Amino acid sequence: xxxxxxxxxxxxxxxxxxxxxxxxxxxxxxxxxxxxxxxxxxxxxxxxxxxxxxxxxxxxxxxxxxxxxxxxxxxxxxxxxxxxxxxxxxxxxxxxxxxxxxxxxxxxxxxxxxxxxxxxxxxxxxxxxxxxxxxxxxxxxxxxxxxxxxxxxxxxxxxxxxxxxxxxxxxxxxxxxxxxxxxxxxxxxxxxxxxxxxxxxxxxxxxxxxxxxxxxxxxxxxxxxxxxxxxxxxxxxxxxxxxxxxxxxxxxxxxxxxxxxxxxxxxxxxxxxxxxxxxxxxxxxxxxxxxxxxxxxxxxxxxxxxxxx
Length: 309
Ligand SMILES: Nc1ncnc2c1ncn2[C@@H]1O[C@H](COP(=O)(O)OP(=O)(O)OP(=O)(O)O)[C@@H](O)[C@H]1O
Hints:
Blueprint: E1 7-16, E2 19-29, E3 34-38, H1 45-53, E4 60-65, E5 68-69, H2 77-80, E6 83-86, H3 98-109, H4 116-122, H5 138-150, E7 156-160, H6 168-183, E8 187-191, H7 195-201, E9 204-209, E10 212-217, H8 219-226, E11 230-236, H9 241-245, E12 253-258, E13 261-266, H10 271-281, E14 285-291, H11 295-308
Helix pairs in contact: 4-5, 8-11
Bound molecules: adenosine-5'-triphosphate (ATP).
């Protein structure tokens, strides 16, 4: 059905050795939406990805992929044909070239081998297509991994820690490809520990702890929910820091960092009022730098909150 979510998890539980790796987890991901799964080691991210892929079956709950029941006896075979997966560790035969490797996976997935050149081009491996995989760099191997996940033109792509071990330039190139896929309507789920890069590259975040989903939404949704204080750094003309400090409204944390710099800590809802007040009353102000809570700050906040509650 056109309006079905791409992925729907309802009260899903998966237990290993009497421990819940995924615990009563519900999540809905729309078609073309992308979600970054975050969580400490062992939080259940890979298990969740494998459940969505149908590589494991839940002990309790329902999973629907593109509107099809994934947990029935038929295991949503049609829906699974539209899933692509880049595992955390993917092994290739070192003696095969990139083109031979992709052709091998294409035959397994019943995808036309004639389309492999296009996919290698898409992931930036066209020039190295005939080089042996044993001579590929880590980044090239990851691109080849992504290429095999793209076979079958997946409508849902699952990427398990796809940028681990890549240098910053390759990470950016990887996210550019992911962004193009999202823009063409592919639902992308990726798990990662790299919070700083995710902040720049992902639209929706889902944070897991001990198998449970403890927060989800866009980074702005998470900021609103966490309501963490905002930090503002004020730079004044030389020697004017003390004069500026006297004009800071009550109830705002104010710390002098030198004779021309102040750090303010304030509730986010007061940010605009305080900035207006400062621009009207502090002529010696030279510069203002606002630091909103980062994804790292939010991640730590929700992890701590879930321990307390
Ligand atoms: N096949 C398995 N047999 C037994 N226990 C398992 C199995 N797979 C996962 N687990 C356990 O389930 C829990 C969740 O593991 P999972 O690999 O899903 O976490 P993760 O969030 O992906 O961790 P990481 O970030 O380290 O990759 C862990 O306690 C793990 O030991």
